[in-house]
Specification:
The protein is of the alpha+beta class. It has one domain: Methyltransferase, Cobalt-precorrin-4 Transmethylase, Domain 2, CATH 3.30.950. Helix content is 16%, strand content 25%. The protein is built from 2 helices and 8 strands. It has helices spanning 27-37, 63-74; strands at residues 15-18, 41-45, 47-49, 55-57, 90-95, 98-105, 126-129, 132-135. The strands form 3 sheets. The chain has a 4-stranded mixed sheet. A hairpin with a 2-residue loop joins strand 5 and strand 6. The two termini are 25 Å apart.
Length: 146
C-alpha cells in the first residue's frame, strides 16, 4: 500500500480505516476476525472515512502506546481466538507529519479458521463482504467460506 496516496483510497473488503481518537476501538477485533476469515486485509489506525468515501489522515495520539494496546488485544485469547499476525504485521508509519498504525492481517490458515472474537465461535465469527464486517450466522460457514 502506498501511504502517500492514502487519501485517495476508499474502504473496501481489504481496507479498513479507524480514527481511534479515543483509544483502540473494540471493533478492531471484528475487523481482524473478518479479514482473517476471508482474504486478509489492511487496517489503518489514525485515518477516517470522509463523506465522499475517501480517507483522511487524522493521526494517532500516542502511537507507541496504541501499538502496545493493539498487540495486547491481538494476543488475548478472551478477545481473539488466536493471533493471526506476526511481529512484522503492524508498524507505526508517518504521513504528512502524522503518525498512523498500519496493520496487515493475513488470511488465516484453513486449519485454524474460523478466527473469532469474545471466546465464542458461534456468535463471534466475522467475515468481510463489500465494505463491511459482518457476523456469520451462528458462526457457520456461508457461501463456501468463512
Amino acid at each position: 500500500m502506498d501511504l502517500a496516496k492514502l487519501e485517495t483510497y476508499k474502504e473496501n473488503n481489504r481496507l479498513e480505516a479507524k480514527a481511534v481518537q479515543g483509544g483502540l476501538s473494540k471493533s478492531i477485533r471484528e475487523t481482524i476476525s473478518a479479514f482473517a476469515n476471508t482474504e486478509g486485509g489492511v487496517i489503518v489506525l489514525g485515518a477516517k472515512e470522509r463523506k465522499d468515501g475517501t480517507l483522511e489522515v487524522v493521526g494517532v495520539g500516542d502511537a507507541d502506546k496504541m501499538l502496545d494496546d493493539f498487540w495486547n488485544t491481538a494476543h488475548s485469547p478472551g478477545k481473539l481466538s488466536y493471533c493471526v499476525m506476526s511481529g512484522r504485521s503492524a508498524s507505526i508509519e508517518s504521513v504528512g507529519g502524522k503518525e498512523l498504525i498500519v496493520i496487515e492481517v493475513p488470511r488465516a490458515d484453513r486449519r485454524l479458521r474460523p478466527a473469532y472474537v469474545n471466546g465464542n465461535p458461534v456468535t463471534g465469527t466475522c467475515r468481510c463482504d463489500h465494505k463491511g464486517d459482518h457476523r456469520c450466522a451462528h458462526g457457520k460457514q456461508e457461501h463456501g467460506r468463512y
